[in-house]
Amino acid sequence: MLNRLYIKNYALIDSLDISFDSGLNILTGETGAGKSIILGALGLILGQRAESKYFFNQQKKCIIEGFFKIEGYQLDYFFAENDLDIEPETVLRREIASDGRSRAFINDTPVNLATLKQLGEQLIDIHSQHATLAIGNQNFQLLVADVVAENETLLKGYKSKFRDIRKKQAELKTLIENSDRLKADLDYFQFQFDELEQAQLLEDEQEKLENELNALTHAEEIKTNLIYALQLIAEQEGNAIAILKDASNKLQVLEQYQPEIEELNNRLKSTWIEIKDISSEIGHLEQSTTFNEERALEINDRLALIYNLQKKHRVQNNSELLTIQKELAQKLQNALFTDEDIEQLQQQISVEKTEILKLASEISERRRQAIPQIENHVVDVLAEIGMPNSQLKIEQHSKSDGSFDSDGIDSIKFMFTANKGHQLNELNKVASGGELSRLMLSIKSLIAAKTSLPTIIFDEIDTGVSGEVAHKVGTIMEKLAKNMQVITITHLPQMASKGESHFYVYKEVDNDLTYSKIKKLTAEERVIEIAKMLSGDSLKDSAISNARELLKNQAL
């Protein structure tokens, strides 16, 4: 329900703060006082377009805030889907700058206008002479049938299955698309994989081959320098090994005279032995160093293959090539098993379709049984409130081709006429604004007790009625308000007397500026206002007496 409405800088309103009650709230006032302005402000938090030319002060921004109690409205899914914090009292806010820029908020979280509108439409239902009413909407018409049919539990199970099937169908579509793409590229993937597999790549071979090729390419230079080093160390006259050996012999003679010399000689012998080993290894290396043209060509060919593969796959080393080879193997494996996955998922969907169609048929049958109750109730209520020749026919069309949507297998269409002898037709083609408002009142009087409905606002639903009919419209609205919040704008005293709360909208001039204001009437102020509605501004005792009588009857 709408707890509170705050309006700042909109049309004739400088600043206005209204707190509504939970039952029937009445708004009255002279024509042009600002009642429709309040509805226009509410429309802004329902996502309607705003123009800065309607601001009270063109230099300031317009702010509209609606405070709503949302417990029982089952809106958790909306807040979860939109990643919003849910609060027992949820605030919808709209800010429009003087340059036309607009911002929207839900519980202080910025949202786009579409999100604000989506939530707002689930919280407020405005019915005016010139509004496009939800009653002509397919979803609302199905809601009416389902509420009367008491399909809530069945629909909850159905929608859960529907979401599951849609999810699986999306998975199936993706699988098929991936499969088709894989199959289209299968030959290419196979060629790439075979090419890499045949190359028999090793992760560290590139560096080894490059080192070996470098050695082969410089074999002559390596061999020449090894021979020269070998000669210096071991072969030419005065070589290093002979010199070290001679030095060791000299020190050995001196060991008997000075103990420290023995330790030095031992170190020299170790050096001599190490150099002899080095000489031997240099000799072996020199003997094995040859220029093998055939091996060099073989290495060049191998490296060329590796380099070409790296360039082709845009990588830098064999490790990355081996990763690509592994990925290609997985793609080929997926291509082999995708058909099995597709077939398995298709079977699951087929089974679930059978189950959901069975459930949809049960929901459809319950709707069919509920339709006469809706038709009879609406026609009876319309007759009471001044539309005795009304006819309502609800057409139910059920799909027979095995298809279904989020609401089942049915489409519902309300066919209506308010005039005897006229053909039934779709609501928006035959019903006036006032007729649609009364039709909506009769429908909601049927379903209000069975489900949580948004706040409903009637803008001059009493147009074209008076006397006893107005009294009956008020009585029905009074009953409706026992199960939901109702706000109605009226010019009829019979209607005004029914409300639990009565608000008076009026204009006030201050410093040559006209303001729209609103106040909640006290019991005595309410008597005076209804008396004025009965007799005009020239209050008479009889009008005041009649007003008291109307209010007394309402209290009873």
UniProtKB/TrEMBL annotation:
<keyword id="KW-0067">ATP-binding</keyword>
<keyword id="KW-0227">DNA damage</keyword>
<comment type="similarity">
    <text>Belongs to the RecN family.</text>
</comment>
<comment type="function">
    <text>May be involved in recombinational repair of damaged DNA.</text>
</comment>
<feature type="domain" description="RecF/RecN/SMC N-terminal">
    <location>
        <begin position="2"/>
        <end position="508"/>
    </location>
</feature>
<feature type="coiled-coil region">
    <location>
        <begin position="165"/>
        <end position="222"/>
    </location>
</feature>
<dbReference type="InterPro" id="IPR004604">
    <property type="entry name" value="DNA_recomb/repair_RecN"/>
</dbReference>
<keyword id="KW-0547">Nucleotide-binding</keyword>
<feature type="coiled-coil region">
    <location>
        <begin position="328"/>
        <end position="362"/>
    </location>
</feature>
<protein>
    <recommendedName>
        <fullName>DNA repair protein RecN</fullName>
    </recommendedName>
</protein>
<dbReference type="Pfam" id="PF02463">
    <property type="entry name" value="SMC_N"/>
</dbReference>
<dbReference type="InterPro" id="IPR003395">
    <property type="entry name" value="RecF/RecN/SMC_N"/>
</dbReference>
<keyword id="KW-0175">Coiled coil</keyword>
<dbReference type="InterPro" id="IPR027417">
    <property type="entry name" value="P-loop_NTPase"/>
</dbReference>
<keyword id="KW-0234">DNA repair</keyword>
